[in-house]
Design goal:
With 464 residues, the protein is mainly alpha-helical. It is 75% helix and 3% strand. The longest helix has 37 residues, at 160-196. The relative contact order is 0.12.
Length: 464
Amino acid sequence: MAIAILGPTFQDLAANVNKNVSQISYIFVGRSMGYFGGSLIGGILFDCLNAHLLLGFSMLATAVGLYIIPWCKKALLLTAMMSVIGFSMGVLDTGGNVLALGTWEAEAGPHMQALHFSFAMGAFVAPVLAKMVLGNSASDSLFHLDDTDDNHSAVNYTDPLMLNLQLNWNFVLSYAVIGTYILLVGLLFFALYLKTSHVRGRTKLSVQKYWTAKYHHALILLLSVFFLCYVGAEVAYGSYIFTYANTYIGMEENEAAGLNSLFWGAFAACRGLAICFATCSYPGTMILWSLIGSTVSSLFLALFNTHTVSLWLGSAVYGASMATVFPSGISWIEQYTTIEGKSASLFVMGAALGEMCVPAMVGYLQGHFPTLPVLMYAALGAAVMTAVLFPVMYKLATAPCDAQLKDTGDSEVQEALLSNAHLEEDEEDGREWNEVDFEVIEMNDTLRNSVIETSKTIQGLAFS
């Protein structure tokens, strides 16, 4: 919701700082840079601080930024607040994925699909909410026809002071409603932190295994490139399909808008259905079907780029195929290696980089080659790239001796068991019994080593 509200209120923000739309387009760059930095720093923070507390603060910062944005009268201040919101969103995106994986672990598939389905729902709800609250936009309020006098009908320009008050009330309310909702959710995270703060942080260590794949770093790097191509193609297609249909195919504006809605509608619907599919399907299987669907539909769109029927059918299949790739990719990689904050920040940054670079590249090439269906070629290229990368990642993930248990140290394991014992019995008794257990283990190890050494000595004497 916080991301999607910028689109329908962009003209009002420009009027609020006394500039036109093209003069403040750099606020998107400011938000993207903040998001990139938040993804990087958030991944580091989530490895050493409480996840509930960090998510609460990130949502609090987002809510405060949304409250302040409608009152920014300077373009520089508006850009700064957009960067702050982008930073907090980057922390939230990284932390949300890490927390979902850490909470449900092997059963995280349906929950990851639900998490990303909520993103699609928020992107759908925010523009509708903004339109309902905004009413007339700033440009529509500059003048109106005064028909109250029966003798004449003339253009009556609104008083500048009244226009300013109306402008503030119109989109201040939309930002305030979304900001208040985000604030309430942030308070729930703080409540969750207070409720679980008495539980010791290492309690899960004795029951949770931290596995690292043999090619862990290569897998994370390839997954970042995979998400760069996927997210870049998704955002580029959703951003340019209206313009492509209107200018290249010659569709009417209402038809082009319907085509755009069809793409995002199929995308959101399949993300909702994926919650059910994830309960009975493996993440790798869902990714495979998604890659087949996106490759075939993008090839269909590239070959028959001037046919209206192929455009409608291909856009629906392409949107449906793209829906499950991101959440399924996160669930899939968790099966082979542990995803911590730093690892999650890398593939989130890859997705953010794709969102920034691929649409800009498509727009640049389409402007220089107006007779070519650059958008369809870009979609096909991204589909082929992801279809090639996934088998490579699978080969690395399933390599022999691909998983190794991290050495947590005897002292940490002992502390973890003591923490678990504290949950079931008195703390002193639990610590006393666990220490006895460790002494027994150490005695057994010593006895075993002495037996081995003795047998080796006997064998040596026998052969000599």
